[in-house]
Amino acid sequence: MSSRIEQLIDEIEEYIDSCKYQPLSSTKIIVNKEEIDELLRDLRMKTPDEIKRYQKIISNKEAILNDARAKAEALINEATVHTNELINEHEIMQQAYAQANEVVSMASQQAQEILDNATIEANSVRAAAMQYMDDMLAHLENIITSCTQSARNGYENLIGSMNQYRDIIQSNRNELHPAEEYEDVVLQNVEDTDA
Questions:
Q1: Phi then psi for 193, rounded to 5 degrees?
Q2: Which of 28, 61, 97, 166 sits between 20 and 30 A of 106, alpha carbons compared?
Q3: Quick check: helix, strand or coil at residue 2?
């Protein structure tokens, strides 16, 4: 089952794939700012929920450890009760003492194994959750970087086009007023001579 973040990232990718290309371009697209803002806003709102979900998974580590501790304590308590019963029987006191030590040792060993396994499992779950979140954030970072670069390229192309149009307009205006341009050149030559 995919997370809501993955679904939103898929929606952003589908939206980008559905955008029209800019005229005369096969790499630049036209993006509707409101739609992309809405998708990013949804993503921003869902990210904390996903993080809480992974924190809940990580918090299960404590539950696993607590369960292991409880089982270990139960084993030790059972061993202690058994030891006390054996000690109370005067005729087999030495044998009971040896058996009790053996039971306590086995219980401690089992408890340690349970704790070790629980710790390994909890760390594995935590590492997987963190890796998954890092992968999702890296994927999102790549999408945003791509959108930013596309927008920057579009803006630079627009400024270049506007400068070309301005140059054409200035050239056309100069062609409309050639006499004024000649007078400006004559006046400039006179000023240069006077200086």
A1: -70, -40
A2: 61
A3: coil
Residue in the block written with tokens 């029209």? 20
| Interval 138-194: pLDDT, tens | 888 888 888 888 888 888 999 999 999 999 999 888 888 766 655 666 677 777 777
Alpha-carbon distances of 27 from 18, 145, 148, 164, rounded to whole Å: 13, 15, 14, 22
Are 34 and 13 a contacting pair, CB within 8 Å? no
- The pLDDT value given to residue 40: 87
Distance from C-alpha of 92 to C-alpha of 147, rounded to nearest angstrom: 82
* DSSP per residue, the chain: ---HHHHHHHHHHHHHHHSPBPTT-SS-B---HHHHHHHHHHHHHHHHHHHHHHHHHHHHHHHHHHHHHHHHHHHHHHHHHHHHHHHHSGGGHHHHHHHHHHHHHHHHHHHHHHHHHHHHHHHHHHHHHHHHHHHHHHHHHHHHHHHHHHHHHHHHHHHHHHHHHHHHHHHHHHHH-HHHHHHHHHHHHHHHHH-
Q: Torsion-angle region of residue 167: left (phi > 0), alpha (psi -120 to 50) or beta? A: alpha
3-state SS string for 53-90: HHHHHHHHHHHHHHHHHHHHHHHHHHHHHHHHHHHHCH
